[in-house]
Amino acid sequence: MKGDIFQAIADPTRRAILVLIATQSMTPNALAEHFDTSRQAVSKHIKVLADCELLTQNKVGREIHYYFNPAKMKEFDHWLTQFKKHWEDRFNQLDQLLINLNSDSDEN
Amino acid sequence: MKGDIFQAIADPTRRAILVLIATQSMTPNALAEHFDTSRQAVSKHIKVLADCELLTQNKVGREIHYYFNPAKMKEFDHWLTQFKKHWEDRFNQLDQLLINLNSDSDEN
DNA sequence: TATATTTGCAACCATCAAGTTGCATATTTC
DNA sequence: GAAATATGCAACTTGATGGTTGCAAATATA
């Protein structure tokens, strides 16, 4: 499951990190100030997000700035879109069934 | 985390179950035939999905038919939509910044 | 009524995940 | 160069998770 975007987004802290970083790129230290957990714990979350490429990094001196990578978020979006299609296809099939039933009864 | 929709969707088997059930309502036994794991394992996944109301059930004799509940999927969709808004707001801020910079240089 | 089928629940096990602490490395500052 | 700062990595602990097996309850069938 390593690098799985669904797994990455499952954790509420990581979702909060994504929201923060999507608004503004941040360093691990700056991020950690927003949470009650230790810096290392936040760093681990960052690693998970970076492993599945939801975050990219840019080293500036001793600081590392993390940026949100919208491209990877598309994978997620894509699944949901496909899923909706499945669901809507089912509705369409039901619609078609109802239409057929109607036309059948018309023929009677 | 009990009943958390993100947690529920994180597991690939559960996503597969959702896709199957979104296409057609099914019983646990029928579902289990689609997977390599035991019936009880599938049943546990069903429980997780039902706990967060992604599935609803309808008992017919000794069988239980599980249905997909699209209403709950909206929560998921909603988060992604809000997230996109965050992201786009940032872009808008950048746009505004660029516009301001341009008008500044126009004034020089 | 006896048997088979469908299902859920509980106990148990192995693995994973999130958190902590400690430490090493690189860079900035004094 | 020494101290402070920013970060990552490794070891360890604890709790959650996914899997299995066994069993009980409800319903259908012989």
Automatic annotation (TrEMBL), chains A, B:
Signal peptide: none annotated. Residues 1-88 form the HTH arsR-type domain. Pfam families: HTH_20. InterPro entries: ArsR-like_HTH (IPR011991), HTH_ArsR_DNA-bd_dom (IPR001845), WH-like_DNA-bd_sf (IPR036388), WH_DNA-bd_sf (IPR036390). This is Transcriptional regulator. The lineage of its organism: Bacteria, Pseudomonadati, Bacteroidota, Cytophagia, Cytophagales.
